[in-house]
Amino acid sequence: MPLDILSAFENDPPELQFVLPGLLRGTVGALVAPGASGKSFLALEIAASIAATQCNGEFFDGFGINPKSRGGVLYLALEDPESVIQRRLHAMGAHIPPAHRAELAFNLCIEPMLGAGLDLMRDDHLNWISQQATGKQLVVIDTLSRAHQLDENSNGDMSLLLRRLEAVGAQSGAAVLFIHHISKGASRDAQGADQFAARGASVLIENARYAAYLSRMTEKECEKWSDRMDGQALHSDMAQSYVKWGVSKQNYDVTPDEKWFKRSEGGVLLPAELTPARAPAKPASGVDDDNW
Asked: Is residue 66 one of the residues assigned to a domain?
């Protein structure tokens, strides 16, 4: 149906409904990161935060996600076995007040699909996702490479794949966030925050309306930040404990500030209290073995 142009001139436009800062409902976005950086944990925390609707007059945002809307979330876990997902949820649960858990669990649907053969190019699979997503705020596809058999380096193939995801968003009204890896070169050169750091064809990010990244702290960044009252810089050995979440592209909103997270027990990413460093780091007396 054609747009009513006169009505658009004369009437107030509808409010834009964002799920995250910059991620609009009904559109497709990407979360791009190196392997083993914590991207699936961040995606789970995003999903849980959106699913944590109001309870006793309060909203939960203990993971520092700052969701713009709350409600149902469909999480398609294509990369990890169910036992691993359960362990992650158990670790996250230690940071979620009991009063919020029931509503969160009601609104969050996680489908463990490792080895299930989900294929976004099959109409029956795409229709199933659209049906499950209808009425929800967000669909997470973790990871995109496991949801198709196309040539990841072909702009034509990836343009077609993005149109299929756009159809899910248009039909369901949910935002679609796909998880994707960065290229080897971007990972080697610590360029994960670059808009075109994603692996494969450039159209993946060009056609997406939102692109976020998760990058590990570099040793050089350790020199700039402190977690101490005296302003002493982080020692380089602490780099492995911190990751940065930011938005490299968004089409409809003000780009949010980057956020630092520190990996806690069980792999949970918690907001990091970092301030600009005022003094160089002292030599480390010991190094914690933090297995990512």
From this structure: yes
**Cα–Cα distance for residue pair 225/83, rounded to 1 Å:** 36
pTM confidence score? 0.93
3-state secondary structure of 178: strand
CATH number for the domain harbouring residue 135: 3.40.50.300
Token couple for 3: 């747009």
Widest CA span in the chain: 70
- Could you give the dihedral angle defined by the CA atoms of residues 149, 153, 157 and 159, in that order, rounded to the nearest 10 degrees? 130
What's at 228, amino acid-wise? R
- Assigned token pair, 145: 């490479």
Place of tokens 């997470």: 140
What's the number of domains the chain is made of? Answer: 1
The per-residue pLDDT for range 188-240, each reduced to its tens digit, is 556 557 676 788 999 999 999 999 999 999 999 999 999 999 999 999 999 99
